[in-house]
Amino acid sequence: MAGIANKGSALVSTLMTQAKPRFATFMKYAVVELTPPTPADLPAIKNGIVKLVSGARTGAWKNLTVCEAWLNTLVTMEVCFWFYVGECIGKRHLVGYKV
Amino acid sequence: MAIELGAPVRVSPLIRFGRWSFLGLGVLYGAYHQSRLSKREVGIRAIEAEKKAIRDAKAAEEKKRALEEEARAIADLSSPTKK
């Protein structure tokens, strides 16, 4: 029993020492890529929406290359999928609702 | 770790705003729909409990009747032949 407890604590300590540099790398990317938008970004967000709407209206989307259009589709799909991730979190069950 | 990870990408604020807002909306919608469905389920469970009681009573009655008929049939078979 004491042997198992010792091995468990050694495992946890190795996990912690291994995780710290990896967590630091994660934070390095997360600070740039994953941060929620601040109020300072509001004008940029509004410009982005305006550009999207005007591009859709004027027909500039027909002049995109297929590669660009495909990338835009993938990014849009990914943004929409976050809604379903949020729904799974809200209903607190992975597949379907548990009543 | 010999994998070379590139520089972090500056994601456009519109995309970040979209991701976080969709996540938040999803959480709210999930919680709201879950509460709505669980409230509906309370009523359904009550109705099902009633139906189950009726079904159980009917099944018990059928079983009793079947047992009596079987006992009667066995008694008929084992009684001396009425020729």
What does this structure look like?
The complex is a heterodimer of chains A (99) and B (83). Chain A is mostly helical and 99 residues long. Chain A is built from three helices and no strands. The longest helix of chain A has 32 residues, at 2-33. Chain A is elongated and about 75 Å long. The longest helix of chain B has 66 residues, at 13-78. Chain B is mostly helical and 83 residues long. Classes of the chains: A mainly alpha (99), B mainly alpha (83). The A-B interface holds A 25, 28-29, 31-37, 41, 44-45, 48-49, 52, 75, 78-80, 82-92, 97, 99 and B 5, 8-20, 22-34, 37-38, 40-41. Chain A: One of its GO terms (molecular function) is proton transmembrane transporter activity. Chain A: It is found in: Mitochondrion membrane. Chain A: Pfam families: ATP-synt_G (PF04718). Chain A: Keywords: ATP synthesis, CF(0), Hydrogen ion transport, Ion transport, Membrane, Mitochondrion, Transport.
Comma- or semicolon-separated keywords:
heterodimer, A: 99 residues, mainly alpha, B: 83 residues, 1 helix, 80% helix, elongated
Spans of chain B with pLDDT under 50 lasting ≥5 residues? none
Radius of gyration of chain A: 22 Å
SSE run of chain B:
H
- Overall geometry of chain B: elongated
How many separate helices of chain B? 1
DSSP, total strands of chain A: 0
Overall average residue pLDDT of chain A: 89
Q: Kindly, what is the distance between the CA atoms of the first and last residues of chain A, rounded to a whole number of angstroms? A: 41 Å
Helix amount of chain B, in percent?
over 70%
Question: Spans of chain A of 5+ residues with little confidence (pLDDT < 50)?
Answer: none
| Beta-strand content of chain A | under 5%
Oligomeric form: heterodimer
What percent of the residues of chain A sit in helical stretches (DSSP H or I)?
over 70%
Number of strands of chain B: 0
Terminal CA distance of chain B reads 98 Å
Q: Helix/strand-derived class of chain B?
A: mainly alpha
Whole-number tally of structural domains of chain A: 2
The rounded Rg of chain B comes to 34 Å
Task: Give, in order, the helices and strands of chain A.
Answer: HHH
What does the overall shape of chain A look like? elongated
Name the chain pair whose interface involves the most residues.
Answer: A-B, 33 and 31 residues
